[in-house]
Write a structure and sequence with these properties.
It contains four helices and five strands, in the order βαβαβαββα. The protein has 145 residues and is α/β, with parallel strands linked by helices. Helix 1 links the parallel strand 1 (11-16) and strand 2. The mean pLDDT is 85.
Length: 145
């Protein structure tokens, strides 16, 4: 598992989608986030994403289900995992009801979400759940005993 992003640092998200307009839409949604600070980067293809992964650190990847020339996440996510990305990967799609979506964890996907479901609250939840998990103090072991 990837080291947790420090509290003051921005969460770096790589958005991979062959439609730039989708990135612009997500950036507007992210702009409404007050906490945590989020930095977005964009890749138009899996090969672009792989190049960015070689040159920068990302805390989360949001990946469009269908990217040409690949069929769907069953082909693209293994390529990202093969490039040693161990952070969370979320697959986004207009329709996540297909039966093959039930196998998402078998391919290294952490979660799936419909594009119409992405809003500020959902993004905050995703970041809290997959990037910055804050364990309640009462759960932490006290090693000073």
């Amino acid at each position: 598992m990837k080291p947790e992003t420090a509290r003051g640092e921005a969460v770096k998200i790589l958005f991979v989608d062959d439609e730039f307009i989708e990135f612009r839409s997500l950036k507007k949604t992210v702009a409404a986030l007050t906490e945590p600070k989020v930095e977005m980067d964009y890749a138009q293809s899996v090969s672009d994403a792989l190049a960015k992964l070689n040159s920068d650190r990302f805390d989360l990847i949001l990946l469009d289900n269908r990217l040409l020339p690949n069929a769907d996440f069953r082909e693209t996510v293994p390529k990202l995992r093969a490039a040693s990305f161990t952070g969370p990967i979320g697959v986004i799609s207009m329709d996540v009801s297909g039966s093959y979506f039930q196998q998402f964890q078998d391919y290294g996907v952490d979660f799936r979400i419909g594009k119409d479901e992405i809003d500020v609250e959902t993004l905050q939840h995703i970041i809290r759940e997959y990037v910055r998990y804050d364990m309640p103090d009462v759960w932490k072991d006290d090693y000073n005993i």
